[in-house]
Design a protein that fits this description.
158 residues; 4 helices; Aminopeptidase; alpha+beta; 5 strands; 5-stranded mixed β-sheet; 25% strand; globular
C-alpha cells in the first residue's frame, strides 16, 4: 500500500529543478517546442502555476510513499480547477521512480488520489498525457480514465 504525503519545501526544490527540465524535454520530443525555447517556456509555466511553491493556492503536491517501508516511490501533483461550471481536479504531474515501476505503485497512487479528491468534494479528475507515453496511457485506462480529447499530428518530411 501507499500513502500520499504532502511534499515538503526541500522536496519541492529538488522536484522543481528536475521536473521543469523533464517537462521541457517532453515538449521537445512531442514537437511542441524547439530545444532553444523549451526550458524558458517550462520555467514560465511552472512559475505561473506554483508561484508560492507547495503553498500555492489550489495546488496539491504529494510524495508517494510505500506505507510499509516508508520509501519514497514517486510523486503526484494535482490542482483544483473548474470545468463546465463544476469543481474538478487536474493532474499536472505523476511519476513513479524507475526502480519502483511495475510494482502496482502507480495504480495504488491513482486510487489514493481519488480519495484526496473526494475529500475536496470533487467528482472528476482529468490529465494530459503525451501521445508517445504508451505505458502511462495504458495505466490510466486500466484505472478507468477515458480519452476525452485527442490531438493528432503528422510530420511531413521536406
Amino acid at each position: 500500500m501507499i500513502q500520499l504525503v504532502p511534499m515538503t519545501d526541500s522536496e519541492f526544490q529538488i522536484y522543481l529543478k528536475h521536473s521543469v527540465e523533464a517537462y521541457a524535454q517532453e515538449h521537445v520530443k512531442a514537437g511542441n517546442w524547439s530545444p532553444t525555447e523549451a526550458l524558458q517556456k517550462a520555467e514560465k509555466e511552472f512559475q505561473q502555476l506554483l508561484p508560492d511553491g507547495v503553498a500555492s493556492t489550489k495546488q496539491h503536491l504529494f510524495t508517494i510513499e510505500d506505507s510499509q517501508t516508508g520509501e519514497k516511490v514517486g510523486l503526484i501533483w494535482f490542482a483544483e480547477r473548474v470545468q463546465a461550471s463544476r469543481p474538478s481536479a487536474f493532474i499536472y504531474d505523476f511519476l513513479i521512480y524507475e526502480e519502483y515501476r511495475n510494482k502496482s505503485y502507480g495504480k495504488q497512487a491513482l486510487i489514493g488520489l481519488e480519495e484526496k479528491v473526494k475529500e475536496l468534494g470533487i467528482e472528476t479528475i482529468s490529465l494530459h498525457v503525451f501521445g508517445h507515453n504508451k505505458i502511462a496511457i495504458d495505466l490510466y485506462q486500466k484505472v478507468g480514465y477515458e480519452i476525452s480529447d485527442l490531438h493528432m499530428t503528422k510530420k511531413i518530411i521536406i
